[in-house]
Automatic annotation (TrEMBL):
The family this protein is said to belong to: Belongs to the cyclic nucleotide phosphodiesterase class-III family.
Stored Pfam families: Metallophos
Stretches that traverse the bilayer: none
The Calcineurin-like phosphoesterase domain, residue ranges: 3-192
Record carries keyword Iron: yes
Protein name, UniProt field: Metallophosphoesterase
Signal peptide coordinates: none
Keywords: Hydrolase, Iron, Metal-binding
Length: 259
């Protein structure tokens, strides 16, 4: 069995708040909860949008917070990340690509691929030929589970569907043709959803930081107000090809709210 803690979108800042929330308080609460209740997990995946605007300072302090984890941490990039700043402070496994923050984690029963869907200068996602080629080369005969920041389909969520993975067709063509990919675990949308894409199941996750509201009442970025919902992380079990995902609240909504 492989047990994984899945967290996403901490939007960590070394100072100040984001949308009225102290992201340091939230990340500490998540790590403390994980250490207290899930120190038996094999590893934790943090699926992107790690920092705010102070790239060097945010990544430096984020690394200190993540060092408190009792289990190995695999960080990924999202639209708000910076590959150079990320690499300066966070370590990657030896399977990582040279130019992209994309890598493979092997366990006895499965392969876990952490993909880089970052597009420089955009909040939408990208999966270029180099990343596709790497993915093709890392699809083996073992069951494969994919973590990625941007969803490769529209999720019927306001505004966020405009910043999904832009070149989703080539990605989906590849994973559907090969057949090993059993599940997609997706960040970015700050809200739990699940479904299938071309028959492959997927799940998204609420953020460690602020939560996106439900699609109705309709909202846009000008009217955006985070939902007053508590954050959660995912507890994933993969055993004999079966997958379960427990959405796990780790603190009350009020934790870290400053305005
Ligand atoms: Fe985010």
């Amino acid at each position: 069995m492989t047990k994984i803690i899945w967290m996403t979108d901490p939007h960590f800042q070394n100072d100040g708040t984001i949308r009225g929330l102290n992201p340091r308080t939230r990340l500490k609460a998540a790590i403390d909860h994980m250490n207290a209740h899930h120190a038996d997990a094999d590893f934790m995946v943090l699926s992107g949008d790690l920092v705010g605007d102070d790239i060097a300072g945010d990544y430096r302090m984020l690394a200190e917070y993540l060092a408190q984890s009792r289990i190995p941490v695999y960080p990924m990039v999202g639209n708000n990340d910076d590959r150079q700043g990320f690499r300066a402070q966070l370590s990657l496994p030896p399977t990582a690509m040279a130019d992209f923050i994309q890598y493979r984690i092997d366990t006895p029963e499965a392969v876990f691929l952490c993909l880089d869907t970052h597009m420089v200068g955009s909040h939408a996602g990208q999966f270029c030929q180099a990343r596709l080629d790497w993915l093709r080369g890392n699809l083996t005969d073992k069951p494969t589970y994919v973590f990625m920041h941007h969803p490769p389909l529209a999720l019927h969520l306001p505004k966020q569907d405009e910043i999904k993975l832009a070149d989703d067709a080539a990605f989906l063509d590849l994973i559907c043709n090969e057949g090993q990919v059993k599940y997609l675990f997706i960040g970015h949308v700050h809200r739990p959803t699940c479904g299938t894409v071309r028959g492959i199941p997927f799940a998204t996750l609420g953020a460690i930081s602020f939560q996106a509201p439900a699609p109705q009442p309709a909202w846009d970025w000008d009217s955006f107000t985070p939902a007053a919902e508590a954050p959660h992380y995912g507890v994933l079990y993969v055993e004999h090809g079966d997958v379960t995902l427990q959405y796990t609240q780790f603190c009350p909504y009020e934790t870290g709210i400053e305005s």
